[in-house]
Amino acid sequence: MKQTIVVKVTMNGDKSRSKALKIIVGLSGVESASLKGDDKSQIEVTGDGFDPVKLTSKLRKSVGHTELVSVSAVGGEKKDEKKAENKDEVKPAAYVWPYNQPLYVYQEVPPYGYAQHHDPCSIM
Predict the structure, then answer these.
(1) Residue 60 lies in a domain
(2) Which domain CATH number covers 54?
(3) What is the Cα–Cα distance from 60 to 118, expressed in whole angstroms?
(4) Where in the numbering of this chain does the HMA domain appear (predicted)?
(5) pTM of the full predicted structure?
(6) What is the pLDDT along the chain (124 residues), one digit of tens a residue?
(7) 3-state class percentages of the chain: helix first, strand second, coil last, to nearest 5
(8) Is residue 29 situated within a structural domain?
């Protein structure tokens, strides 16, 4: 599901801004990141399948104080409609083995101590 989050980061200069953006874009699932706000202290991150808590903890460790301002999901209504359509389908109650054969076939083993030994060579 595509999501958009806004993170407020205390950034002192251009170096810390670029460092924060590199960390954000380096996460898997992030599609875009842009600076927001009057003092450019907020970063809006858009992507699919990334963890906002993991993102904020990485920013706290490397850049400084980070605050998660908002998290919003985009396109959540479409999935709800699909779930409602799938509820009409009827599923079978139990799985029935479609063949007349049993699952396991056992082979008889000769009793202990009995072995057929045929010697193909009859020199003696």
Answers:
(1) yes
(2) 3.30.70.100
(3) 80
(4) 2-71
(5) 0.57
(6) 789 999 999 988 889 889 999 999 998 889 999 998 888 889 999 999 889 999 999 999 999 899 999 998 876 555 555 555 655 565 555 555 556 655 565 556 655 655 555 556 666 5
(7) 30, 25, 45
(8) yes
